[in-house]
Structures are given as C-alpha cells and as structure tokens.
Design brief:
Length: about 675
C-alpha cells in the first residue's frame, strides 16, 4: 500500500469505521500514519512505592493484596480500590493502593496475590501509604507488550484506542517498501534524518527514546523547512504603496499630552519608528519589550500619526478578549482627537462586522483593532499605512504574510519574548529590532512567593485584605474541571467553589474558561473589568488575555504545571500600575526541578533571564509532557528551544528554493502548498 491508498483498503476498516475516520479528517493510509500521538507514556521507566515520589508516571511491579472493592462516593460516582503489596529494596513491605473512578466493572478482574504491572503517577496517600490514580495495568505475563514507549493518540469518535492502534499497526505493516521518500536523499543525508518508513516506525512503535528522538527530529525538520520555504516566498513577493511622513511635531505634542511621561526607552523606540516612517522603504520592525513595559501606547501613538497623515492602522491582538480591551483603550485615547476607531473580531454580529468593513473600505474608520478576523479576504482597506501585530509571546508568521500582500504597508510586530535575532529574522523576514528595556517609572517589583497548599487559607485572607483596599485578584488553575488521572492538579471549578465558600458574602468570585460560551465569557470579563467582581478564577487564557490595572494579586495554583515563560506572563497580569503587587505560586510538588524552577520566578523579574533559564532546564524528551505550540503551523518544533535545528531548516530551505533538480522542485512545491493549507487552517481557528 502507498500513503495515498484509501483507508478502506485496510483489513478491518469497513464502511462504518471509514466514515468515523473521515469525520476525523483521515482518508488515506498516509493520513492514518501521519496521525501524531498527543503524548507518550514511557512505561520503560520503573519505579516503586518509596520516597522520593517521582514527578512523572512510572511502571511499578506489585501484587494485588485482595480482590479490590467498589465504593460509592458522591452522586453517581464510584471508586474501585485495589490494595497493593510492594516490597522495597531492603525487604520492607509498603502499603499502597490503586484507585479508579467510575470503573466498577473492574471488580472481579484481579486475584489476590497476582503479580501486576501498573503504570501511572504515584502520590502519597498519607504518612505511610502510597496511591496510584487510574493506572494502566497488565499481568506480569504480558510484560513484553505492556512495557514499551506507548503512544497516546488523540480521540477519534467511535473508534476505541486499541482498535486505532491496531489500524495504525496494519497500515505500517502493509506499507510499500519501495516508495519514494518526499524528502530528497541529499537533505536526509546532510541533516542526518531517518527515511519515511523509519520515521513512521519511530513515531508509532519506538523501541527506545533514541528511535523516537530521531523520528521527531525529522518531523520537526519538515515543519521548520515548510515555514522557512513559505517565508522565502513571502519575501520574494510584496511591493505596493507605503506611507511617507515628514512632520512629527503634532504627534510629539500628542505624546507629551498623555497622562504619563513616556520612558526614555519608549521615546527612543518612537524615534526609531519615525525614522522608518520618513524613510524610503516600508518599515519592518519588531518591538520587543517585557510584560508591562508599555508597548501598547507606542502602537496608539503610531496609529495617531498614521491617521494624521491620512493612512489607516490595523492592530491585531492575539485573543478576542485582548482585542476588545485594546479597542477600548485606542478609542479612549484617539476618539477625542477626532480619529474614528473600530473593533473587528470574529464574534461581532454579521451586520455590525459588515458596517465596520464598509467603514474600512471607504476610509471613514482610521484605526481598526481586532483579531485575525481583520485580515480575512473580505476585508478591504481604503488606505492602509501600518499593520501592528501584538503577539505577546506567540508567533504569527502567517499573519504577516497575508497582510504584506495587502500592499507595502509599514509593519510592526510587538512581542514580549526575547526572540534571538537570527530566529526573529527567519520568522519575520528582514527586520529591524527595537527594544524597550526599562519599565515605566514608579513600578514596584512584584513580590513573588512560593508556597504549598497548606498556606492557601492565609493567601485567601491576604487576597481579602487587598479587596478591602479596593483591589482585585486573579487565580489561575491548569484545568477547568477535576481530572480523573491527576486529581491533585487544581481546576477552576473546585477552586472557584472553594474560594466562594471562604468568602461567603464578603466578596464576589467568578470563573472564566474556554468551555464557556462567548457571550458568557464576555459578561464575566465585563463585570470584572468594571470592578463588579473581585476575584476571577481562570485557566491560563488570561495569560495573554486580560489587562486590568487594578489587579494586585495573582495566585497561580499547581504552579509546577506551567512553563516558566508562562508563569512570567501570568505574573505580568499584575503590577501594571504603581501599586505594590503580589504573586503567589502554589504547588505541593516539591521535587528538585520544581523547586528550582519556582526559585527562578521568585528571584527574577526579567523575561529574558527567565526565558534562558527555561530553555536550560527543559531537556530533550519534552514531548513526554503536555506542551503544544501555537506558533504559525509549528506544532513540534520550537525555534527558541532548538535554534540550531531551526537554522538547519532555514539553510535547507534556501538550498531547495533555488535548486534546479526535479526532486527538489517537487519537494518545494509540496512544502509551499502545505504551507498555504496550514495558513488557511490556522486563520480559521
Ligand atoms: P505591555 O508591554 O505588556 O503590552 P502595556 O502596554 O499594556 O504593556 O502597559 C502596561 C501598563 O503600563 C498600562 O496600564 C499602560 O497604560 C502603562 N504605561 C505604559 N507606559 C507608561 C509610562 N511611560 N508611564 C506609566 N505607565 C505607563
Ligand atoms: Mg501588551
């Protein structure tokens, strides 16, 4: 079979299963084989019920201590508890149990004394006993099939995980040996990449980490070279009109009339930008500045200048929530000067969106603030002069590409990530860099603390004191609802209930998360920004989402679950005014790496320093975790974490871009059409 063979040719895939696969977007054998696991369970790492408790799941060899019992807990919920017997190296018997939620049918599965293999996370139950939540298990006789690096695939509705793995196995077994590899031989040789078959094997049936790493490397390489090739093409097209401005007196007066004095760094950056506006080529500039350094006002001032000169400004925010807030800020600062601003996001009513689009097309609206809805094909601009993309710490390769096709506008990309210059150059093309390297005067360092959950009541009390002084607080949790496998990880639902119980009628708490409907989210946010709610319990959506200067406390629950750069961003949701602000990181995970990571955040306030420490601490094998990148089309490759690999991709892209060999040309065309496809996919989400 070949990758393009329809799945129906596979044994065991009939009409019904083919339809289910089709619903999941899988039509061919290749599509099935390209299905990437969400993560892997490395069951080859063994552990036991002794201290210290390992941070990651492990396989334990233990005996069933009894048949196990089903217990009814809360409404409709049951718990199956299996006592375990395990002996430590010094021969002591340790008490432990495995528990499963809502799987009463497990009773009768285990025989007392039977030897088992269990894979899962170990936690301490109490002083003497250990517990494993919802472990995967097998009998000792099945060791060979159980103890492997096991892929965990995304759910396909109507097809169980076992059946799905079986299909993938068959697809791999039946794959033609003699097929041509899409990646040209010379690239595979030069960059040390496994061939297609080896890659697929490494992804789905890795025998060890090395094999998986090699396969991952090739997939990352394919992502990187796809983006790099796409960017080469963007750079080769372009052209159009460009705003030219000569007189900056009026905009300087506007800046001087703001409620605060610009920092030296902000003034310097503005002069650099004005230099571009009056120069003889379109600006392509990246503005880097740590969270809270005041990038937005630079955007506002630039928009003012463009409007004065008769050009429109397009400002794109990473989330709808942020777009709405920025739209308000822009309006408040610019409308009094007779400049028309408007917001355009995906959640506007069609009729409203239509009105805004008309205003942009006939030039009545001078400044548009929005999300990617702004750059959809049906939006036309009367006279666009400046496009600003606020990325916080994401990348938006594609937005830039799409917008630069709308004419040779000036472009400004704003980022809080200290992206190394070479990486930035590749991601964004030939650009200049401006840096805001100082925070507004009078900012107080955010006091940051690391505690275990034992301190929670005290922290709640602290938050209450802050509320009494008229301030607000954010509480961030990794999950929306309680997770069966990781009940110790905090979730919005439980924490919200907990703090409401604590607060009684003394203050108001609301929840915000991705499962709410857009209208509901909007209402929650509005009430919070208007000060009607005191505490917002949310998932990390607030990370790039909400700016409320009145927030003086950020409490991050299960803080060990977040990346360092993310924690820095979350902390940056406070300290946005002159008032002393506080950040509490809470976690009961006290293993060495966690403590070391928390210390970095506690001791450093520099985004640059934190980012560097983050990359240092994150070793290879990252995909054993839960991270996924939102970068334009990059799912596996993080250019910041693996700059050398990314550089190789860029080099390889250049090699094939101008190559005359048929093999290279076919590969290039394939990369470009994939680039376009991904670009479309992303801009629709
Ligand atoms: P970021 O760079 O993270 O986007 P913002 O632009 O949101 O930061 O600015 C953070 C806060 O600082 C905002 O409330 C903004 O009004 C304020 N701010 C910006 N520049 C100054 C300044 N020069 N002096 C005082 N406050 C400022
Ligand atoms: Mg910002």
């Amino acid at each position: 079979m070949r990758p393009e063979t329809p799945v129906t040719e596979l044994k065991g895939v009939g009409r019904v299963r083919a339809q289910k696969l089709h619903d999941a977007g899988i039509e061919t054998v290749g599509g099935l084989l390209n299905m990437l696991p969400n993560r892997y369970e490395d069951r080859t790492v063994f552990g036991g019920f002794d201290l210290p408790v390992p941070d990651t799941p492990v396989t334990v060899r233990a005996c069933a201590g009894a048949k196990g019992t089903v217990r009814r807990i809360r409404r409709g919920m049951s718990l199956f508890v299996l006592p375990l017997i395990w002996k430590s190296a010094d021969g002591k018997t340790v008490k432990a149990e495995a528990v499963w939620f809502n799987q009463p049918y497990l009773s009768g599965t285990f025989a007392p004394g039977e030897e088992l293999l269990l894979f899962g996370r170990i936690t301490k139950k109490d002083k003497e006993a250990f517990r494993m939540y919802a472990p995967k298990f097998a009998r000792a006789a099945d060791e060979e099939t159980f103890v492997r690096i096991t892929p965990v695939y995304p759910k396909v509705d109507g097809i169980g995980p076992g059946v799905l793995s079986g299909m993938i196995r068959r697809a791999w077994d039946d794959l033609d040996a003699g097929m041509t590899d899409p990646v040209p031989d010379h690239l595979r040789r030069d960059y040390g990449l496994p061939d297609y078959r080896e890659t697929i094997r490494g992804i789905h049936f890795p025998e060890n980490r090395e094999m998986l790493d090699a396969a991952m490397r090739r997939l990352k390489f394919e992502e990187g070279i796809r983006i790099a090739t796409g960017i080469l093409r963007i750079r080769c097209s372009g052209g159009g009109t460009r705003a030219v401005v000569r007189d900056f007196d009026q905009v300087r007066a506007f800046a001087a009339g703001l409620p605060f004095e610009l920092t030296g760094a902000q003034k310097h950056v503005l002069e650099e930008i004005f230099g571009d506006f009056s120069g003889d080529r379109a600006m392509n500039r990246m503005l880097q500045g740590d969270v809270g350094s005041g990038k937005t006002i630079i955007a506002v001032i630039c928009a003012y200048q463009m409007a004065l000169s008769g050009y429109q400004t397009v400002y794109m925010a990473p989330t709808e929530i942020l777009a709405e807030q920025h739209a308000k800020n822009f309006a408040a600062l610019l409308e009094p000067h007779g400049i028309r601003t408007a917001m355009l996001t995906g959640s506007l009513k069609p009729s409203e969106a239509q009105r805004v689009r008309e205003g942009l097309e006939n030039g009545e609206i001078q400044v548009a603030v929005g999300t990617h809805a702004l750059i959809q094909e049906k939006t036309h601009f009367y006279n666009p002069g400046l496009v600003i993309t606020d990325e916080q710490h994401r990348f938006g390769v594609r937005q830039r590409g799409q917008l630069s096709n709308k004419g040779g506008c000036h472009t400004l990309v704003m980022s809080a990530t200290p992206i190394p210059r070479t990486t930035a150059l590749t991601l964004y093309g030939d650009l200049d860099l401006s840096v805001i390297d100082e925070l507004p005067a009078g900012r107080k360092k955010i006091k940051t603390y690391f505690y275990t959950t034992k301190a929670l009541t005290k922290i709640y009390g602290f938050i209450e004191d802050q509320i009494r002084e008229g301030h607000q607080a954010f509480i961030v949790c990794p999950f929306i609802e309680e997770s069966e496998e990781m009940p110790e990880v905090a979730d919005v639902t439980r924490v919200c209930a907990d703090i409401r119980k604590f607060a009684g009628k003394r203050f108001k708490t609301e929840a915000l998360h991705a499962k709410q409907k857009p209208e509901q989210k909007e209402r929650v946010i509005r009430r919070f920004t208007e000060g009607k709610t005191d505490v917002l319990v949310a998932t990390s959506i607030i990370e790039v989402g909400i700016d409320v200067a009145n927030v003086t406390t950020v409490l991050v629950m299960s803080a060990d679950r977040f990346g360092l750069a993310q924690l820095h961003q979350l902390r940056g949701r406070t300290g946005r005014s002159g008032t002393q602000s506080y950040c509490f990181l809470v976690s009961d995970n006290l293993n060495e790496t966690t403590v070391e990571r928390m210390k970095i955040i506690v001791n450093s306030t520099s985004g640059q320093e934190i980012a560097m420490a983050d990359y240092r601490l994150r070793g290879p094998g990252e995909y054993f975790g839960f991270r996924q990148h939102g970068y334009g089309g990059l799912r596996l490759l993080d250019p910041l974490a693996e700059p050398e690999l990314f550089d190789s991709c860029v080099k390889a892209a250049r090699e094939i871009y101008d190559s005359g060999s048929a093999e290279d040309m076919i590969f290039k065309d394939r990369l470009l059409s994939e680039f376009d496809e991904k670009t479309r996919e992303i801009s629709m989400t």
